[in-house]
Amino acid sequence: MKRILSWTALLFLTVSPLFSQQTQVSGNVWGLEPHCESCNDTIPLFGANVYWSNTYTGTLTDSAGRFSLMRPPDRFELVISYAGYTTDTIRVEAGQSQVTVYMEQPRTLESVTVTADLPANVDDRDHVINARALTEAGLQTAACCNLAESF
Questions:
Q1: How much of the chain exceeds pLDDT 90, in percent?
Q2: pTM summary value
Q3: Cβ neighbours around 43 below 10 Å, total
Q4: Rounded CA gap, 83 and 56, in Å?
Q5: Which residues in 131-149 are b (16+ Cβ under 10 Å) and which e?
Q6: 92-142: pLDDT as tens digits
Q7: Lowest-pLDDT range of 2-16, 19-33, 73-87
Q8: What is the full DSSP assignment across the chain?
Q9: What count of other Cβ atoms lies within 10 Å of the Cβ of residue 25?
Q10: In this predicted model, what pLDDT tens digit does every residue of 34-63 receive, in sequence order?
Q11: What was the pLDDT predicted at 16?
Q12: How far apart are CA 108 and CA 101, in angstroms?
């Protein structure tokens, strides 16, 4: 009886790691440039978050947009997020070890209006101190340099 239990335990300890092995998944994360509708310019996204859905297993991309992380058992959904881009979730099949992701920037607003009211301790609340409407061209001008030089 002891011999049977010993063989069963040895078989279990030998076979169980084969079923729970983690595999490594590597890839690149690219951002599609929104400035040109007709061209397909891409840039590597440095510091993009790449993680397995519903886990704490993840990493960041390097300066070339590359990443590499271990896949936990029974995980197929890889989530990629980056500030200013739409978060993407992709399915990575069981035997797949290489992934390339192209992230798109969401549509931009044509204009933004920012208003400010007088402080609460001032009696005249009917007048706005300063209001300025920025168009898309104005926002692009503002993004070219620092705030003081953009106006």
A1: 37
A2: 0.57
A3: 10
A4: 19
A5: eeebeeeeeeeeeeeeeee
A6: 998 899 999 999 887 666 777 888 766 655 555 555 566 677 777 776 666
A7: 2-16
A8: -HHHHHHHHHHHHHHHHHHS--EEEEEEEEEE-TT-SSS--EEE-TT-EEEETTSS-EEE--TTSEEEEEEPTT--EEEEE-TTS--EEEE--TT--EEEEEE-PPPPPSEEEEEEEPPTT-S--SSEEEEEEEEHHHHHHHHTS-GGG--
A9: 19
A10: 665 666 678 999 999 999 999 989 999 999
A11: 45
A12: 21
How far apart are the C-alpha atoms of 25 and 44, rounded to whole Å?
A: 18
Q: Give the Cα separation of 81 and 93 in Å (integer).
A: 20
